[in-house]
Amino acid sequence: MSKKKRIVIALGGNALGNTLPEQMKAVKITAKAIVDLIEEGCEVVVAHGNGPQVGMVNNAMIALTHEDADQPNTPLSVCVAMSQAYIGYDLQNALREEMLNRGIENIPVATMITQVRVDESDPAFSAPSKPIGKFVSAEQAKMMEEKFNYVMKEDSGRGYRRVVASPKPVEIIEIGTIRTMVESGDLVIACGGGGIPVIRHGNHLKGASAVIDKDFASCLLAKELDADFLIILTAVEQVALNFGKPDEKWLSDVSLDETEKYIKEGHFAPGSMLPKVQAAVDFAGSKKGRTALITLLEKSRDAIQGKTGTMFHI
Ligand code: ADP
Ligand code: MG
Known about the structure:
- The chain is of the alpha/beta class and 314 residues long.
- The protein contains nine helices and 17 strands.
- The chain is globular, with a radius of gyration of 19 Å.
């Protein structure tokens, strides 16, 4: 019998929705797509983003400081931890149910609260770029800068938003436990929201005010677990050249050299498609036999059979 293919799946925003009820509905569809892969005979590890959720938790914790003067503001690392647990709960609940509905009773599901180490000297810390949370007025933005030491930026005429650093993941602290669980056949959800960002100070891991890109964290997770596939599930079925333009061209199969050329030509938007393509290239180029795929959630089964999606290989 051939060895099971190990797949790390990175879930994007459309797999989780934007609000609590949306997420509860979305995870049911997401669970179906994931269990489809398990039925295909794959070993699946799930990672996911947290953009809307971490913004929501952060806003809720700010509201608490207005309500109760004794409550200090909540560090962003703690907001990421809260989002990880909340999303993990919805996902593991839906995955368990979907497997039981299909008669799969021997695969335990669990979420690993994951810390991911980042480098204190990462240039991202001096150039915060990732917007989180809701839009506020110029006056509110000024207040938040003074009261909470936030960096607030005007966002294309829509108001001000908090921007945070998005440093590169360096080390997955709980990788040993994650590996043990995966090796024993569990379905593991890990590195949620890119992982809780921490900086090493001797034996102490200090929470960092940052949000790690889930595409890069998933890539590191896939490399560390020696996965065969990294599948990044997002809102488009394939990656395009000249995206949204009249001469748009969808890509089904690309070599890493071709992709590097397309990156230089500026085909992939920073902050959305670029980190996915960079993560795909990084993973596929890291060892022979590793393949990266970018596709739509509902198409993941077709994509691993080579029927759709954009496949990256050496
Ligand atoms: P996720 O929540 O899955 O990370 P993002 O919105 O960050 O999703 O990124 C996916 C989006 O990237 C797509 O919905 C599409 O609008 C956009 N995009 C930018 N450039 C491209 C491209 N070259 N090909 C396809 N999609 C692109
Ligand atoms: Mg994204």
